[in-house]
Write a structure and sequence with these properties.
This protein is an all-alpha fold and 430 residues long. It contains 18 helices and no strands.
Length: 430
């Protein structure tokens, strides 16, 4: 196996790859996020209960989480290009089918199917981007790609909310799906022109060897990544972070629509735009800080993660407590900015203790644990909406953030230096 970190990677080639990947990632989040701005209409048109509305997020996340480690394993051994394009086509078809749902059961089934299809995309996309990017630009490249997630959340929720308000929620899904299908052909053409090193982490000889011994050796290969203590801690801290994030993603629009008596479109915009636009600035600020100070301090990326959850914890609790809409907007901006530090650096931080041949798997496993826990977030809010509500559940999430901060601090002090040295030694020996 070999490390694809050649300094021959230019800023221009990295920018082109990120730009093409950005559009696909943007569509990914548009398709998954639109439904959360439609809760009021879905309760009427499909007679969905609060618990069923919560399941629109929970089922997607749970199925997505289960699929991510498998997708990561495949991304490390097979063509990332095929996984990326195949995922785009399938989730676009599922999005169209979502717009054709005639019952709550069918819509929930489509949400689960979307989890399967979208799971194939993320590990392959992040791994390909990382393989094609020089180390000195890596955090900024991942941060740039992640802005598509932010833009997709805003666009998906705003478009979905506006279309639902006009009485055309079905057409919203159909149009989003058609956009994905239209993009697949030119995207496939671009990816076909990339060098082989971006697509695979193994040589042909390595790949044949892996395939020949897959049945007898796959379990040790999969489990060996958990022998890295720092990675285990990231697998615990990251889910605690996204648990609170998905409470906001899934229920904030409905919460402020009811609390401040806003229209569906207004609530969708406020619940996403202020938070997500600030997250974009946070992504680049966190990426810049991590890349700049990494030269002097090897724990810089992990320290940025620690600062992120430490600052976000009180802000998350405050979101559910404020009574003034303008103050809520300010808090959403602050939370979005500091959450961007975590979102943009979690994978580069993991890659410092995980070798290049397991990057796709690392992304898949982190997403699995994140989705497994955060899937309970929309379901719990929906189930206990009338008793604890979103404010009470955000308080629980704030405690989870504090626990994540403690775990990251322990990793920085006790496990990170040894794991970084071990990974550097392994990479040098290839």
């Amino acid at each position: 196996m070999r490390e694809h970190d050649s300094e021959e990677n230019t800023a221009a080639s990295t920018a082109f790859l990120v730009a093409w990947m950005w559009v696909a990632y943007f569509l990914n989040y548009c398709d998954r996020q639109a439904v959360f701005a439609m809760f009021k209409v879905l309760k009427t048109d499909l007679s969905m209960s609060e618990t069923q509305l919560g399941l629109t997020g929970a089922l997607f996340l749970w199925v997505y989480g289960i699929g991510c480690p498998i997708a990561g394993f495949l991304a490390d051994r097979f063509s990332k290009k095929m996984l990326i394009i195949g995922s785009l086509i399938v989730w676009s078809l599922v999005t169209i089918a979502t717009g054709l749902s005639v019952s709550a059961t069918m819509l929930l089934a489509m949400r689960a199917a979307m989890g399967v299809s979208e799971a194939l995309f993320m590990p392959a996309a992040i791994s390909m981007t990382t393989n094609s990017t020089a180390p000195k630009w890596r955090s900024r490249a991942v941060a740039s790609l992640t802005t598509a997630q932010i833009a997709g959340v805003i666009a998906g929720a705003s478009f979905g909310g506006w279309m639902a308000q006009q009485g055309h929620w079905r057409m919203a899904f159909i149009l989003l799906g058609l956009c994905g299908l239209a993009y697949a052909a030119p995207f496939a053409w671009y990816l076909s022109r990339l060098p082989i090193g971006a697509d695979r982490d193994e040589t042909a000889e390595d790949l044949r060897s892996d395939l020949a011994s897959f049945e007898t050796n796959s379990r040790p290969s999969l489990l060996s990544i958990f022998q890295v203590p720092t990675f285990r801690i990231l697998c615990a801290a990251f889910p605690l972070f996204v648990f609170g994030l998905w409470m906001i993603y899934s229920w904030l629009a409905n919460y402020i629509e009811e609390k401040f008596e806003l229209s569906t479109a207004q609530a969708a915009w406020i619940s996403t735009a202020y938070l997500q636009l600030a997250t974009i600035f946070g992504l680049f600020a966190g990426g810049y800080i991590a890349d700049r100070f990494r030269k002097k301090n090897r724990s810089a990326r992990m320290t940025v993660l620690l600062a992120s959850v430490g600052c976000c914890a009180p802000l998350l609790v405050a979101i559910g407590q404020v009574e003034n809409l303008d103050l809520l907007k300010f808090i959403l901006v602050a939370y979005g900015f500091f959450s961007g530090w975590m979102i943009g650096n979690i994978f580069p931080a993991a890659f410092e203790v995980v070798g290049s041949s397991r990057r796709g798997l690392a992304v898949g496993i982190l997403n699995f644990f994140g989705a497994a826990l955060s899937g309970f977030a929309p379901l719990m809010v929906g189930t206990w909406k009338k008793s604890y509500g979103l404010p009470g559940m955000l308080g629980v999430a704030g405690i989870a953030y504090a626990l994540a901060a403690v775990l990251l601090a322990l990793a920085i002090i006790f496990t990170l230096p040894k794991d970084q040295d071990a990974n550097a030694s392994t990479s040098a020996g290839r």
